[in-house]
Amino acid sequence: MELVRNKEKTAEYRRRAQELVAQMTLEEKVMQTVHQSPAIGRLGIKAYNWWNEALHGVARAGTATVFPQAVGMAAAFDEDLMEQVGDAVSTEARAKFAMQQEGDDGDIYKGLTFWAPNVNIFRDPRWGRGHETFGEDPYLTARLGVRYIMGLQGHDEKYLKTAACAKHFAVHSGPEDVRHSFDAQVNEQDLRETYLPAFQACVQEAGVETVMGAYNRTNGEPCCGSGRLLQEILRQEWGFEGHVTSDCWAIKDFHEHHFVTATPVESAALAMNNGCDLNCGSLFLYLKQAVEEGLVDEKRLDEAVVNLFTSRMKLGVFDEKGENPYDNIPYTVVDSPGMRSLNQQVAQRCVVLLKNENNILPLKKDKIHTIGVIGPNADNRRALVGNYEGTASRYVTVLEGIQDYVGDEIRVLYSEGCHLYKDRTSGLAQENDRASEVRGVCRASDVIVAVMGLDASLEGEEGDTGNEYGSGDKPNLNLPGLQQDILKIAKESGKPVILVLLTGSAMAVTWEDEHLDAILQGWYPGAQGGAAIAKILFGEANPEGRLPVTFYRTTEELPPFEDYSMKGRTYRYMKQKALYPFGFGLSYTDYTYGNAALVSDDICGEKGVVLQAEVTNTGAMDGTETVQVYVGLEREDAPNPQLKKIVKVPLKAGETKEIEAVLPREAFMLYDKNGKHVLCPGTYHIYVGGSQPDARSRELTKKEVCHFQISLDSCGV
Length: 717
Hints:
The chain is of the alpha/beta class. It has 3 domains: 7-325, Alpha-Beta Barrel (TIM Barrel); 337-548, 3-Layer(aba) Sandwich (Rossmann fold); 591-712, Immunoglobulins (Immunoglobulin-like). It contains 21 helices and 23 strands. It starts with 6 loop residues before the first helix and ends in a 5-residue tail after the last strand.
């Protein structure tokens, strides 16, 4: 989908911004470079707080639709869905902004500049903030990031609906506890092949208005003051024209933790001189001194402030009310029935079916008298929402979803089972104080639904979680506390046990895979998550989610957390078999592929490589197949076959559809050790099917994918 902006209108905004900035004093300009920018009454400028969040809904500003956490939405593998969600979020944002402005409320989290999406690569499952991302794959992250930004920013020629932000630029994915001092060392090949592609797509395809620097250093330079990242790559190479913001209080890290500067003045100067326009924090107030001492040219300060006011003008806040189409969105759209319905649909499409022994799922109401629901996440609202969340008017936990769904037809018995991570639910009780209750529930039930996992108190941002681990990173990939003990009690009952995992990341559920009847990965499924999961359990909805991250068997098979080399990481570079591979997910129906053909094999041509295939739903239930296309080069140092195309195919039972996938030249190009994008000679393998072509996926799905190969004789850049 092409993004069209009126260049003349943008140029007009920049001229207006320049005229406005030219009237400001040095002190006034400096004050506009911090996130809480004061009013300048004599110029008709209102105060504005730049800090706002919309990771999966309008956050931290009262009632709003709380969609599934970002990594959960990534599991839908659906670009169109991401833009639809982004559009819904920005619709609520505009409605809330208009309401707040009427009340003269310009507080934090109440502007139109949203610091989302997070397009960092989830390279290590221990990283606490990984659930904010779209997973481990650069292609998937780029596609979903681009479309979410388009949804947030809208397609009006003249105005931005809201201003999105690609963060955290760049090479940022933990560890959280050292992020303020850490230097992420990365070679040029990994930088270009893994860490930068999503950011480049967000800038060049989506026209993202803002880019946020990361806390850490990358190859010695603090990201929020990196000439390489912010000047050479972002501005000069990619042509970025928006504004750059620091992460919050990141600039004071320059002298306090990174020790690349000695004083606050030097830190502010380093960031400003290297292209950071806005400071989330207050250190840029030292810019007045920096300009006076000759450390910063006032022309560079002018440029930064012009960038900021150009963004505000694109949002239409300096125009007469009613001039842009977004002024007319009524407050009643917020938390409306339509929004709740969309939220539930999104949550349904995020669920990944990981195991379904003997087709135990979907459950049949007429075969069940009593369901036992156990586990610390069964009735845990925090396990619905992830982090950077808004406030829903109603939350539906998995327990409530099942209770609402079955009504009086089936008895639902419930036990918390255990604390999420402690060894007892009450401080005065003995260890494992709910074990006997779990046995009683299991004994009296026909089937057990165990809802386990984590919540954002156990994985999240450093300083943002309140957990015993402190930093927000996971110490290992195991279910914490007594959760596995409770699952073993349930298994010993002899009743079928269905595990619903509510987590934002991969867990090493090897015992569970061997012993339990079914496993659903529900992520943090949003405020309507329990209703969506109940519909999946009872077959009113068919799971279509695919894993956007690899599920490993143990922590031991991972490289060191601090190592930013991609060797041995993610499906693209791992050598061992995964527990559950990237791209994997089962369905209640079955899909077959036929008449697969290579219509065009011209890698270098204008048309590119064109594939066609017929996809048939051979099962008894309607569903949606996620067609995945992978490309691999037959060469020792090349990555494993990589995802290069996704086609979503809704199919009624018995229906056949023909799909076409076009792969441009870029889909076959790799980066060499010097970071050059090259098309290498050799044999290319193309795989088309419902999973990636690895041995473990074939083992789990019991299916082969379609395979083509193309030989290329020459190499080009």
